[in-house]
């Protein structure tokens, strides 16, 4: 039996109810960003991801207190085409139908194209605008039995299995150890990579393993490196990463900055001769978890950012991250800003290609400044072709891309040039592709008790976050959020239900493990409800 609709008003025959397509709107749940259809003045709201009391309450308000909610569980990135609300071929109308008891494919689905929610990755179906189909449609749900999962996987060819965080952590540590990383460093790196994945930052988690393997094979990465302290002062320090992966030296640097800030109030620890270190936000979080403010900047090994008015890339995605602490008893999620200075991180384009999802216009441009949206072509534009690349934050000159370009320079100067790290565009001219990239990072920690009595900063920040959450939204279903909230919500979901891997990435990780000579340790999570 597939997922059932639960009426909240009366027992209408849903199979015969149709509404004008113009009456429907595409909404998002403010809990985890899930997409659902709503008819503001009508009878139905189709809640699809995730089921939560807040989602139901929101849908009830949007649908004039007369919704029909399907109680489902969250399953991002899986497309189900035979289970839920189907868009019919009746011109200009939506037909709201319960699930097909026989699990048969609805005939209108052949005319639907796959799309994806920008916020959470839930796959949706969008019907093209034409005389024979409705203007918008959404077909996505969570089945209630394994048979429905298998059926959906066969019909869409985009199945994603969920794996436990523990098994991904063990698999990653085993691979890193086989590459020559010391056990303690491998454990730290695996922990940081999986924490990044738990936070929903798929582009910087285990999806990086194939790229790390390629760097290792070229001789550019030295996994056995042991970080060295080159300079050490009361409020500053400089570390050398030894051309190893950036995670161990970055964690050491931030912990050192935290220790020094507790004595001096503020501290900066720089790193040179490092490599990719994952998501900058995980290091800023280290400070906030210990009651300090954390600020992180970094250069990047890849050259992707096309400056405003340029035709070729000259900078990396150069991330900036900031985190601020809250009191232990706060009901709010800590404030954490973690951003690339390009419109999107480069590996997010690669993840789109793995999932065969279109790349939004404005992410990637060719050497003529034209957008590249086909996923494989966009990935090739970044990793294989000369000219073009990622736009700076802002996208275009008219929308302020010079600001993203400027922020990328800030991250380069503070994160790398200050510490003796390389400017990748010049470094690549004088060094071969097999030589270390000399990536630089900077980690700043600030102890608020040096500026205010203990607890006052956290209390004021808590009040500010409460005010932001209470700000009147244009759409009640899309309330004002605070940076860090979506990541914590994703973490809660993934700890409970596992981490979904695209089939292509799953195969790549197993292949990397095989080439490293380690056992297959991945364990799928059985999270589906049983009857």
Describe the structure.
The protein is an alpha+beta fold and 531 residues long. It has 4 domains: 6-158, no CATH class; 160-217 and 498-531, Orthogonal Bundle (Hypothetical Oxidoreductase Yiak, Chain: A, domain 1), CATH 1.10.1530.10; 227-340 and 400-490, Ribosomal Protein S8, Chain: A, domain 1 (2-Layer Sandwich); 344-390, Hypothetical oxidoreductase yiak, domain 3 (Wheat Germ Agglutinin (Isolectin 2), domain 1, 2-Layer Sandwich). The protein has helices spanning 53-62, 146-156, 165-178, 183-198, 209-217, 246-264, 281-289, 346-354, 375-383, 401-415, 424-430, 456-469, 485-497, 503-516, and strands at 6-7, 18-20, 25-28, 35-38, 45-47, 68-69, 93-95, 113-116, 123-126, 160-163, 228-232, 236-240, 266-274, 293-298, 320-324, 335-339, 364-365, 389-390, 439-446, 499-502. The strands form 7 sheets. It has a 7-stranded mixed beta sheet. Helix 8 (346-354) packs antiparallel against helix 9 (375-383). The chain is globular and about 55 Å long. Mean pLDDT is 76; it is low at 1-158.
List the helices and strands and how they pair.
Elements: E1 6-7, E2 18-20, E3 25-28, E4 35-38, E5 45-47, H1 53-62, E6 68-69, E7 93-95, E8 113-116, E9 123-126, H2 146-156, E10 160-163, H3 165-178, H4 183-198, H5 209-217, E11 228-232, E12 236-240, H6 246-264, E13 266-274, H7 281-289, E14 293-298, E15 320-324, E16 335-339, H8 346-354, E17 364-365, H9 375-383, E18 389-390, H10 401-415, H11 424-430, E19 439-446, H12 456-469, H13 485-497, E20 499-502, H14 503-516
Parallel strand pairs: 12-13
Antiparallel strand pairs: 1-6, 2-7, 3-4, 4-5, 8-9, 10-20, 11-12, 13-19, 14-15, 14-19, 15-16, 17-18
Helix pairs in contact: 3-4, 6-7, 8-9
